[in-house]
Structure formats: structure tokens, C-alpha cells
Fold DNA ligase (ATP).
Amino acid sequence: MDLPVMPPVKPMLAKAVKTIPPGMQYEAKWDGFRAIVHRDGSELVIGSRTGKPLTRYFPELAEALTANLPGRCVVDGEIVVAHGGRLDFDRLSERIHPAASRVRTLAERTPASFVAFDLLALGDTALLDTPLFERRALLTEALRPAAPPVHLAPATTDPAVAERWFEQYEGAGLDGIVAKPLDLPYRPDARLMFKIKHERTADVVVAGYRFHKSGPILGSLLLGLYDDTGALQHVGVCAAFPMKRRAELIEELEPLRMDPPDGHPWAAWAEESAHEGARLPGAKSRWTGKKDLSWVALRPERVVEVAYDHMEGDRFRHTARFRRWRPDRTPASCTYAQLEEPVRYDLAEVLAGP
């Protein structure tokens, strides 16, 4: 491979802001695997956000990208998997599997798509110093003949359209808007773009915690919600605390500690079979490896209000953010019924563009 921008390349990133800034290019924020694709004729590398290759996990995309991208180029985009008319991150995550046979099966069962939104090189020309609006024009022309599963990300410079996308596209599984200055050069690993994400709050039960990797202070709170059957389901964690506060929380929560955890709703978490019918902490996956999944059980008596972006099925998609303790709420009142459900929106409408 001999390109003007060679792999690995770390993608340009975005910093969070609360409102959509004016005077920029706006795109949907895709919920998938960020990927930079290098193509030089028959040679193709799909690089992850960390620079590690993803090519072997998406054989159907390697074939489609070779067929749809210019002969020599470097393209930034997102790998996504759709199911039921919306993005499905859980099904996408299943694709990272060590067994080639399993990867092939999933490639047929849940084929991935690639959504392109930036161009780093074309032919013999590096475009890292080229303004965004010029890169976008070149990308649009380069992908004009492309066909699914390779897509050009819809973009607009109209803030009103961006506001509408922000409200509608969440129903298709997207999680916000990315705003990019029109004269922005491409700077790998630099946070020069802006992301605007949905934020909602929920009252959840604190049912345990994990220790911090640095020592005997709190690392994260384990959060739960009651389902329709009255079972407490593990929905995620809350983890961003100052170091001093982490030590204080251990002391504050000590009266609730259950050791041994007999009678705790998640007491069977160490048994593999227990995870089949319920959401419990400590489930092993290809992501956890040899990570210590142990946790400290607490009597599920305290309620906390947390902020979250959106749900992935029956759990928080990302780490929740602590807002305040809710001594006025009872644990039993912390159910899934309180969660706001976005209006459904067909992903095909998103990919069709403005």
C-alpha cells in the first residue's frame, strides 16, 4: 500500500457542547464503530478508532468498500448494523469475535453498512490541510456512484434542519448531532468538532459498587431498575466522581453493605446460567477478558438521579452521570415506566439524506 496518508490514522474527535452552534456543517452522530478506510487498488485496511485493523471482522464490508470507493483513497466514517429500521449496537458488537466461522455467519445474518463522512486523501493528494467544505465536495463527488451498504452521510449547513434531525433521528437509533466548522482541516486525534447529545434523567436504585482500579475507594455505582415482573435489572453504572468523593462514598454506603450477599436480587451473579434470564452485573463477554468483575452488594434502598444519553435495549448505552441523591423516592418506584421513549424513525429515511 502506497498512499499519501498511510495507516494507522486516529480519527479527528468532537467535544461535547449543550447546544447546536451556528455557522457550521451538521451531520447525524452515528452510533457504531468509528473506522478509517485505506484503499490502494486491491489492498484495503479498515482501521478502528485506536488504529487497530477491523478488516477481518467485516468481510462483507471489505468487499463492498473495494467495489464502491475510489481506487486510491482514505475515508473516515462509521460502521453500523441496522435491525428493525434502526441502529443496533449490540448486534454490531457481536461482530468482534475471534472465530472466523462465527464472523462469516454474522456477516450473512447481520450485514454491516459503512457511512462515510470525511475524506483524508484521494489519489496522490493528501487532504488533511484542506478545509472541510472542500473535502465534503470531493467526498460527495467520489461517492456519487456508490451503492448500499456504502453510504454518504447526510449533511447540511442549515441549523433548522440540524435541529429537526436532532429530534427525529434518535428514533432511528442515532444519538445526536455533530457540528463541524466549515474551514476545519483534518487533525487526527484532536477534539476540534462539536457533538450535541440527548440528555435525559432517571431515578435508579443503587444496588452495589465496584472498587476503583487504584485501590479501596469507589470506582462505580451499580444501578438498577425494576421491570414489569418486579425483578431488579442491572441497567448500567455511574462512575465519574472526584477522588476525594470516591473515598467518602465507601464510608457513606458501608451501612448498606451485604456481606455475604444472601438475599440480594443479584446474589447469583457469579453463576453463568443466572445471566440467561436477567440482567445482572458481572456478565462475561469478549470485551471483559480477564478483567475483575467482582462487586460489593448493597441493600437496594438508596435512590439516585442520573443523566443518560439513551437506552440500548434495557440498559444505558453509556456510563450514566450522577446528578443527586433522591431520599424522597422509594426504590420500588424506580421502574422502566419512567423512561422516555423516542418516537420511532426509519433509518432508511436518515440514509436518504435531506
Summary: Residues 132-142 form the longest helix (11 residues).
